[in-house]
Amino acid sequence: MLKHIVLWKFKEEAEGQSAAANISVVKQKLENLNGKIPEILSIQVRANTYPFAGNYDAVLIAEFESEAALKAYQANPLHEEAAAFVKKVTEARAAVDYDDYNDDE
Fold first, then answer.
1. Which domain holds residue 84?
2. Where does the pLDDT of residue 8 fall: very low under 50, low under 70, confident under 90, or very high at 90 and above?
3. Pairwise CA distance, residues 4 & 40, whole Å
């Protein structure tokens, strides 16, 4: 199982909305891909509950069967449409992908 973790810092205001409003939109857009993109095993977006200095504003946690499934998800036009909005409303991104099968490392 491949875990795909993405962190974002949101612009204070973008697309006519606050960061908090845009986090809600991103959450809806990405979580609504579940069931529409077959490679997604699970997907959730969560806002940062404790916005300490230096913390990111939101996180995506998604699971895929393999790297190939992740790449198929990323290339899917529905994901590309959601990602285009994310790029408009965020100012920084960080990501980590890891395979649960290698937990002994």
1. 2-61+73-100
2. very high
3. 10
